[in-house]
Structures are given as C-alpha cells and as structure tokens.
Amino acid sequence: MGKKTEFLYLSERDTIEAGVLDAKKCIDNAEEVFTLLSEGDYLMGGSNHNSHGLGLVFPKESPFPNMPVAGPDRRFVAMPAYLGGRFDVCGNKWYGSNAENPKKGLPRSVLTVTLNDKDTGEPLAFMSANLLSAARTGAVPGVAARHLARKDSEIVAVLGCGQINRSCLRSILTQLPQVKKIVCYDIFEAASEKFLSWAKEELGVDGEATSDLEAAVRGADVLTVAASRLKPLYVKDEWLKAGVTVLITGPMQTDTSFWTSTKLIYDNVRLHEAYVQEAIESGDKAGYYKGVIGGPIYTLIDEGKMPALKDSTSIGEVILGKKEGRTNDKERVTFVACGMATFDVGLGYDLYKTALKKGIGQKLILWDEPYQQ
Amino acid sequence: MGKKTEFLYLSERDTIEAGVLDAKKCIDNAEEVFTLLSEGDYLMGGSNHNSHGLGLVFPKESPFPNMPVAGPDRRFVAMPAYLGGRFDVCGNKWYGSNAENPKKGLPRSVLTVTLNDKDTGEPLAFMSANLLSAARTGAVPGVAARHLARKDSEIVAVLGCGQINRSCLRSILTQLPQVKKIVCYDIFEAASEKFLSWAKEELGVDGEATSDLEAAVRGADVLTVAASRLKPLYVKDEWLKAGVTVLITGPMQTDTSFWTSTKLIYDNVRLHEAYVQEAIESGDKAGYYKGVIGGPIYTLIDEGKMPALKDSTSIGEVILGKKEGRTNDKERVTFVACGMATFDVGLGYDLYKTALKKGIGQKLILWDEPYQQ
User: Fold this and answer.
1) Are A284 and A370 spatial neighbours (Cβ–Cβ below 8 Å)?
2) Do A164 and A249 meet the contact criterion of CB atoms below 8 Å apart?
3) Are B333 and B265 in contact (CB under 8 A)?
4) May I have one GO cellular component term (chains A, B) (predicted)?
5) Which H or E element spans position A370?
6) What pLDDT was estimated at residue B356?
7) CB B183 within 8 A of CB B156
8) Are A130 and A163 in contact (CB under 8 A)?
9) Which of A94, A118, A364 lies nearest to residue B114, judging by beta carbons?
C-alpha cells in the first residue's frame, strides 16, 4: 500500500500571515541558524558541503536569438541545504533575477523555497520566498548589530537604498534603541529620498537623503551596505570613525588600510573557504573574486596582508561566547555576510510550522498513493 | 502597479492526465531535446553550462545524531536548466532519494520540477516529477532504439528490473515492432519475475526471468541496462553478439575489448566533457569516475585507448544526419546516457502546455501584486 503525500503551499500573502515581516522573530531565527553553522550542524551543496549554489550562467552573446544573455542582475540559482538542530530538514531555494523586472511591475528577483523531509525527500512545503529571502537577508545584519554594534549607536548610514536595505534597516533598528537618525545614500537621489520616506513612515525614524557618500559615512555609528552591483561603492578609510560597525551585505570597496585595521567577523568562515576553493577551481581566481562580496578580502589574505580564513572568526562563535566580538567602544568592527541557503531553510521552516499551526496556506496532494513504488 | 503572478500546480495524477505515460510522445519530445542539445541551444548549471546538478553530499558519519549520513541511493540534487527551441523556458528539478523509501510505501526518489519564465523568473508551473522523470529517462533509450538499433531486433535483455527499466522498456518497444521476447535479469530473482509479469500485462510481451546474467545477454539483440548501483554489473565482451545495441542508462562494467570495439554514441558529448572537468577539479579523479556512468570510458580515453570526447558523436548529430549512427547490421553499437535536466524541462513544458489547454491542474497565486517591487 502506497503512502499519501501532502504538502503545504504558501503564497506571499500566506508568508506575511505566518510572520515573515516580524523582524525580531526573524533575527532570533537567524541567530539560531548562526549557532548551528558554527557548530557545523548543516550541509550545503557539493563535496565541500559549503557551496553557495548552482546557477545558470548566461553567456555574453549567443547564436540563438531567444537564449537569455548576460545582463544586470540576470541569473537563475538553485541553493540546496540541510539544516540541523530543531529544524532537521532539507530544502532548496530557486530563483531568477533580472534588473528589468521592475519595469514589468515585478521585483528584481522572483524566489521560491521548497522544504523536504530529510529522509524520504517528500516535499513538506512550497512557498513564495521573496519576503522570506529579504527577511533572512535583513536578519543577518540584525544579528550582527545585536552582537557587534555599540549599544549607544545613534546614526545609521544606509548605503544603497533598495529592497535589501529596507529589510536590513528594519532588522537593525530592532536591536539599537538609541538610533536617532538615518542617512540614506544611493547613486540615484530619488531612490534615497524614497527610502527615507518609507523609513519615516514604516519605522518612524527621521534622517536625511544624500548623494554625497562621504557625508553619509562620516559621523555614522553603523553602516549597512547593500548597494547595487551596477556601480562599485568606494568608502574611504578616513571617513570611518572609531567605534563604527560596518555591516556588509553587498559589495563594498575600501582602502587596504581599513581592511587591515578593522576587526573582521564573518558570517561563516567555512563558506568563504568554499568560495576561495571554487575560485581556484574556476581557473580564473581574480575574475571569480570580482564577482563575490569577499573578493577584496580574499585578495589581501592571499597577499599575506590579512589573517588566513582558518584563523578567523565566525559570528556563531561570538554568539556562543567561544570567540571575542567587539571588546571596546573604539575598535572598528566589520561583519561580512554572503547569503546562505541555510537561512532560507531555517526561516522557511518556522513559517511552515506557524502556517500549519494557524491553518494558513493551501494543502496540496502530491499523490494519494504513488503510481510507482 | 504590481503584476499578478499565477502558476499551475500538477499532482502526479495531473501529469498522467496530461500524458506523461504516453511513451511515444515522450520519445518525440526527447528526440527534439537531443537536436537542441547537439546544436547547443540549452544551458545547464555552472560556468561550463553543462553541470549535471548540485547535490547535498551526505557525510559517511556525523557528530550530529540527526544529520543524514551516506547510504544507498541517499542524496538530494538540484538540476537547473534553460532549454531553447520552441520550449524557451527555464526550470529546476529537485529531488531526494533513499533506498529505504519503499519500506514506507514511497518510491525510492521523490521528485518535483519547477518551470520558470526565462526573463522574469516567475514560476509557470510546479509539478510532481516522479513519472515525468521516469518517462524522460525511458524516452532517452527509446530515441536511441529508434536511431541505432536494428529494425529486426527480436530479443531484448532487461538488465536491472526496477522502475527505470520499466520506463525504458515501455519506450524501446514502441520503436521495435519485431520484438518477440524479453529476458529479465536482476540480482534479486523476485524482482525479475515481478518485472516479467508487469511486462506481460502492461506491454503484452512474453519472455523469461533469470538470475543468470550470461544467459540473459547471449542472444539479445538489444540490451537495456539500468541496474542498481548497489552491485556492479559485469557483462563480458564475448557474450555480446554482432549487431547488438547496448542502451546504457545505469552503470555497466565490461571488458576493455568491448569498449574499444563497439561504436559508441553519447547522449551529449559536452555533458561528458563537463563530468571529466568536474572529476579533475574534485582532486580525486579516479574516485569521481567511480561514481558516474561514463567512468570506465573516461578512464580508457585518458589512457589513449578510446577516441577523445571532442572527436566523439552525440546522438543529436545522428538524428540531424550530421554524423553516422549504425551503418550496418554487424557492428555493435552502444549508447550512453546520463540524465540531463534539459529533458525534465522539455517534457515538463509539454505536460504544462497540455494541462493549460485541457484545464488540468490547480492554479495557484504567488501574489496578487508583489508586496515589494
């Protein structure tokens, strides 16, 4: 006798009902995931267990007129993971991105997450993951703000005024009750003004919008960096004051003197080791480095100017009290995060459990019994 | 104003209604995909555009009691692809496998396929893919039987009597009307007898069940090989008669003298080049070769005993008349297929289109309009 398999479908609206916009809960979830990462109780793809994901790489040009070609933010990526602890579940995030999407009334990326029974592979849930992915991305610097930022931080500079930084700021502000002002910077002035209006309305925080990067950075106690990859963001060492906390979610360029003097905490050292390994395997290490957030850091490590990854600190170790985070109010602390499928699986799982409990979503039947066993 | 996004959900039953069991149609679909592959009008994962997929690799042992560990057929794999031609669509197959599943009334693997708009990334369909995957896997040797087997083939040896070979045989028989007899071999005699009963009933073909591999192979005009990976299958050169067609869907070992004397046709030479590249990058070439169907062949190529992959033939080129397939009734022709996400996307797309036309499946709303753009 075959076994019936059912799973839960959650639309974007269902994920809201299940709590995806509750920034505090998302931070707690991400913090828990970080501790599992530092303990090693997870698997991502590949034989190194730490592959970020597998993407369709669109060619620069193609003899086939319909084939997608490389373009701004244009990609599809599959990101499988197993997450341990109380989650104990497998899943896969799958998404397509295209900078042209907003012209069509769509977000730049369209994402879904599948959760699966770790033993049988049966789907448990299939869900819209745009808000999930934004929430987990934002929750990561939220965790870092909780553990690394000065509690008396008053000014937050928002570098890059897109959707990602909305999630980041929403999350960071839950951790820093003294924040009085935000300074919003974007290469597009309209974007920084729109962001500021949104922040006033939704988060009740005041501030200013500027297209002067130096003005935005000087005076900031916390930087949240999630600028578009379209134009590199160069933040000079001298602009960054003592005691600053730099939360890096998107690419940032800075002087070597900053990298070598800041206390650097990684989201997960193993992930960065995997990036370096993949860079070597690609046959074009420098080219690969250019495409990843940690690229400038790996270059300095290779040159012997920064400590090796194996001697570095993951934030999970700070959370667990195994290594030191910020130790005084003067040091400049930088946190680098790259995005891991484990966070999608972790937060997706809690949304799924909440949905089950509250009767949110649509039950779908995979089969009443499998046609073939 | 945001754009509404809807997509179609197809349960296993829906995929049956949409025609997944129609072996002839599935072969036509796979044949079309093969021509696109040989023209290069597709993309799979990775910078080489030909990665088979990205899997969770379970460790042999783990300090975490809940973490899945390596076991028979135990894996999760994500397989993304873009397929061109009239399909012009992206998709991802995602599945988990576990040899323990049948004890729970489940198939060994549980599979789903997502199809996505190539430009926006929006999901078009999410579907149960167990039958889809079996059908496309079976259709591949069906295409090979159509183009490479002697039309007067009378005896088919079925090596490995599981679900995969059911699909293969169903497909092969649609192409070879002269077949009078099947010989079913499996290491488990009960499996071969069960297979024979099924074939009599569903396909109306008579034959015999045996646990004597030599007896099964000698006299066969066509071999369909899809045995479990649990025990290697060693087929001796001397058992394989002149004019035989060997259709390899699962691992087979044989004498070097067979490999070097048969005419070998690949499903897609580029895929095998990618396997060899990944083997080199893995740092354990020999170990990697052991895990893939083409391993014994790549070893002989590396030793200079067989022609290089770049000088080899893909079946798409035979279909298009660009290279020769079988040229006489005496030569022994072997076809090697490894499974590509392009076939899941191709067949999935036709099922989706049929379902749309016939009103099969369930429309699901991703969002009425996206919460964030």
Assistant:
1) no
2) yes
3) yes
4) cytoplasm
5) none
6) 98
7) yes
8) no
9) A94
Q: What is the pLDDT of residue B47?
A: 86
3-state secondary structure chain B: CCCCEEEEEECHHHHHHCCCCCHHHHHHHHHHHHHHHHHCCEEEEECCCCECCEEECCCCCCCCCCCCCCCCCCEEEEEEEEECCCCCEEEEEEEEECCCHHHHCCCCEEEEEEEECCCCCCEEEEEECHHHHHHHHHHHHHHHHHHHCCCCCCEEEEECCCHHHHHHHHHHHCCCCCCCEEEEECCCHHHHHHHHHHHHHHHCCEEEEECCHHHHHCCCCEEEECCCCCCCCEECHHHCCCCCEEEECCCCEECHHHHHHCEEEECCHHHHHHHHHHHHHCCCHHHHHHCCCCHHHHHHHHCCCCCCHHHCEEHHHHHCCCCCCCCCCCCCEEEECCCCHHHHHHHHHHHHHHHHHHCCCEEEEEECCCCCC
CB contact under 8 A, B11 and A371: no
For residue A106, list chain B residues with Cβ-Cβ distance below 8 A.
Answer: 2-3, 5, 120, 122, 370, 373
pLDDT of residue B230: 72
Determine the Cα–Cα distance for residues B267 and B289; give it in Å rounded to an integer: 18
A280 to chain B nearest CA, in Å?
9
- Whether residue B94 and residue A92 make contact (CB cut-off 8 A), yes or no, is yes
Using alpha carbons, list the distances in angstroms from residue A282 to A1, A251, B222, B285, B291: 48, 20, 41, 16, 22
Burial class (CB in 10 A: 0-12, 13-18, 19+), B1: exposed
> Given an 8 Å threshold on Cβ–Cβ distance, is B106 in contact with A120?
yes
Chain A residues in contact with B56 by the CB 8 A cut-off are 43-45, 80-82, 90
Q: Which amino acid is at A114?
A: T
pLDDT, one tens digit for every residue, chain B (373 residues): 799 999 999 999 999 999 999 999 999 999 999 999 999 999 999 988 999 899 999 999 999 999 999 998 899 999 999 999 999 999 999 999 999 999 999 999 999 999 999 999 999 999 999 999 999 999 999 999 999 999 999 999 999 999 899 999 999 999 999 999 999 999 988 999 999 999 999 999 999 999 899 999 999 999 999 987 777 799 999 999 999 999 999 999 999 999 999 999 999 999 999 999 989 988 899 999 988 999 999 999 999 999 999 999 999 999 999 999 999 999 999 999 998 999 999 999 999 999 999 999 999 999 999 998 7
Q: Which structural domains are found in chain B, ordered by start?
A: 5-133+342-367 (3.30.1780.10), 148-340 (3.40.50.720)
User: What is the residue whose two structure tokens read 């690394």?
Assistant: A148
Contact between B112 and A102 under an 8 Å Cβ cutoff? The reply is no
Q: How far apart are CA B89 and CA B113, in angstroms?
A: 13
Nearest to B106 among A40, A80, A373 (CB): A373
SS3 A146: helix
SS3 A248: strand
Residue A326's identity, in one-letter code, is R
Verify whether the Cβ–Cβ distance A372 to B130 is below 8 Å.
yes
Best B64, B87, B344 member to test A by mutation, with max A CBs in 10 Å, is: B64
Q: Which two tokens stand for residue A78?
A: 């599959």
User: Can you say how many angstroms the Cα of residue B146 is from the centroid of all Cα atoms in its chain?
Assistant: 16
